User: Fold this.
Amino acid sequence: MLSTLRRIVQEVSVAPDLEAALDIIVRRVRTALEADACSAYLTHLEDGPQRLVLRAGQGVNPEAIGKVSVGFGEGLVGLVAQRAEPLNLERATSHPRYLQTITYGDEQFDAFLGVPIIHQSRVLGVLVVAQHEGRRFDEDVVTFLVTLAAQLAASIMQAVVGEDAFQVQHGQAGSAGIVKGLSGALGVGIGECVVAYSPEALDDVPQRRGMGVEAERRRLRQAMDATRDELKALSEEMRSMLPDEERALFDVYVMMLDGDSLWADADRVLERGHWAPYALRESIRAHVRQFQEMDDPYLAERADDIRDLGRRILMKLTAEDDGPREYPERTVLAGHQISAAQIAEVPTERLAGIVSMRGSGSSHVAILARALGVPTVMGASDLPLARLEGKELVVDGYLGWVFVQPDDDIKAEFVRLAAEERELSDQLQALKDLTTETTDGVRISLMANTGLQTEISPALIEVSDGLGLYRTEMPFQVRDRFPGEEEQLGIYRRPLAAFAPMPCVLRTLDIGGDKMLSYFPFEEDNPFLGWRGIRVTLDHPEIFLTQVRAMLRANEGLGNLSILLPMVTRLEELQQSMALIQRAHREILDEGLDTPLPPVGVMIETPAAVYQIEAIAKRVDFISVGTNDLTQYMLAVDRNNERVARIYDSLHPAVIASLVQIKRGAERHGKSVSICGEFAGDPLGALLLLGMGIDSLSMSAGSLLRIRWVVRSFSYAHAREVLERALGMEDGRSVRQMLVDELERAGIGGLIRAGK
Ligand code: PEP
Ligand code: MG
Assistant:
């Protein structure tokens, strides 16, 4: 059963559209279960009264497909959808809810098994198998169908969204495809979709025009030849290590590359004017399908090998493809898991929006997008990526929604919202020269978070009180090797010089988790609990020392550097880091440079650090709280996982209580506390932090004036009272509602929603 299940899921995942996907499902299921009939019902995506339409069937009356529909709760199919659980009946016809429809024509079906297709707690449809003879489908069949429906739900959802967009494009009925994800960066963006793909994801390769049939043929031929040569060489190298039968796989690959079949299928696509990567994708898909359809399980498994071969060729194709590409004037970058490097490839002035199927609002890519001020939707897992290249998309970064091929009304609404945003932005600009001070005269310093050189502008320096967090991993991420000491010296000198004499906090390299370096790859089962931040750099003192030396040298003659250590969970890490920093400093003095030992601080990002706040505070010069990670570790919610993003909440009472504890602990040792996680730049968070008496808030450039507005709208006394109320609450939702009400009452609700 497991291999049948896998085969169906794989086939559906490469189906070109919804109709084909449903057709595969009903055909395959009927055969696998030896049932007389199998049918699939789907709902529409729009809100309102739900109806289930018969969309595909095998062994059913073909006239009924597309015509028969039932409401939720109506008939047996509607009952399955309403209850959201399977229904297994031996004598369906005697069930009180049995409904006579034309589904099966004149035929009589007794046994009925229906299972709901549920995606993200929403019923998308119902899968039904039926049998003439009274037969109770046994437990295995029920669990098979339930498992299949659960596994297929995401693919079906994607296909449904794709179909809606297609219908709008062709002037047929149906609303624009709306894909619901999570807010990544606020704002509204409208533009043309460019699909970003990585060579590992062959199925994401978009359809694009080529540079001419002959040129694309040449490219593909070269890539295939290079792959063949590489595989031959690999097979030779393995001769002494692998038995002949294991090496036979390489020979099969080589034979396929030498043979006509792969090439012929690709060539047909090339002739239609498409580019080589797309032709390769189509040819590989066709071959995968052929293998999957084979009954011999061994041959069916070979489909995976064909995919692997496809990825290898694609890798070669994209390696050659290193020239800069032309991006549309208003580009919306969409992809499975958008990376910092992919964002960096698009000229900022052309980047109108970002949509990532993976990740959440707390992912580092979302933080980068906020720094760039590009409206972003994360976790849009239902995005029909294969159909999006060149299509118009609207990105609503407030709600986390994406509209595919929006109609004129939707577009007009977003153009209006964008205009309102510009108005808000003008109002914010008026705060530029004012102080960040409460109505009763308490000042708080507002610092900037960055890691991008391009972001450091005179305007940023003018509105901030310093650089509160420089994420040094960003310049590391956009390179293709570790930068050396001289190169790093140049990188760090720029922010230090630009902000002097204001303070500049440079954080030591914080890689791991969702921040990887292409030239230093490693894989872990639980990357956020693994080799991250200080753990990596203490295991590689050469990387740490080079970095610290570059920072100290960059500080020469300026004296505004502070060093911040990420992901500390044990005092030993702090002590070791201090010893290395002191050693680097001594070396630099010995080399004749005159530069002071800078203040050193620790990031509080884990419950372990919260509970040891006093032990840490007495050993360092300052404390900076990384609420992004603190929330993730406190609540045991992966900040990068869209499935649990809805329960990632920095307003959870446990997080608020830990922040209060940090502030008190640091205060006892006379140390200042800064907050540099995204919470500081959230108007709701800022109000609470103000009440805690936090010394400084550090945030993305785009949030600075918004938070100044919040601070200027309240008195410190009132903020303290708001905090007291929050501390008496037992769930994050109540805290949020109370803070939203406070902001609305103060007349600044426009800071947290679209529109004025
Ligand atoms: C944090 O965790 O809050 C933080 C500021 O660090 P980063 O987001 O880079 O992990
Ligand atoms: Mg962090």
